[in-house]
Amino acid sequence: MIVDRSTHAGFKPEKPTLFGVMVSNCAARNRWVLYKKGLEGEVDIAPPRLLGDKGTKSPAYLALNPQGKMPVLVLPDGQALPESAVIEAYLLDKYAGVGPSLLPPTPEARGRAALASQILGLYITPIQGCMYKQMDATQRCDQLQAIAFQMDVLEGVMDPQGPFVAGSEISFGDCALFPTFVFFTEILPKHFGWASVFEGRPKLERWWAEVQKDPEAARVIAEMRSGLADWESSKRWDTLGISAQVADGSFNWSCN
Ligand SMILES: N[C@@H](CCC(=O)N[C@@H](CS)C(=O)NCC(=O)O)C(=O)O
């Protein structure tokens, strides 16, 4: 792909191009669909920095997604599709005949998968930064409590028989959730003292064990863990003052 940095408008990649970094759970969700459907030859994957040194805040990137967030999928005609759920729906539709459909088999099961996706998008993604961004301690603790509550909500959404979100087959419902659970399982015990992410959430616990057996999910999880290892090496939680906040025992960081 050739990127013309001299212009912000009219960027037209040769192939559809998914902009996002490896550690981003939102971008990871879309990479899983590409890997699962064998679309790596059809769709390029690129970091936002390719469009400018400020990454998602570069003028060229903001021209594609004014929200300054990743991922964004840019089509060869220049149309930009931001929002991971929108990109996912587009990929499932556009490449419906390629590889697995990733759609659960019944309207009810598709409803369950869509509900998991909606809960993530409306109630979890907007506050996930409490695990790794700078903010005051009270807000962080409140948002961690909200994440714990939303995990309980998701436990109730899971198909009773499982093991996947919408039944016996992996689907777009699992794809919505599992990258965010990489953050939960890696960050909450290590940095906020959670004994387990799955205490009192047996369906999610069984699901997490199963979803990691999917080869493409395992690949995405490894990519995200590598990005998180970089955050650890740079001492992100110390540098942003998060470790110092957590040392204040007057907050219930483990949300129990
Ligand atoms: N609703 C959006 C959320 C996008 C989002 O929050 N992306 C994060 C990464 S997971 C991001 O771009 N963070 C960088 C930033 O906020 O500057 C989606 O699902 O795509």
From TrEMBL:
Residues 14-99 form the GST N-terminal domain. GO terms for cellular component: cytoplasm. Residues 106-233 form the GST C-terminal domain. PANTHER family: GLUTATHIONE S-TRANSFERASE OMEGA (PTHR43968:SF6), PTHR43968. This is GST N-terminal domain-containing protein. Gene3D superfamilies: 1.20.1050.10, Glutaredoxin. It holds the Pfam family GST_N_2. It comes from Chlorella variabilis (Green alga).
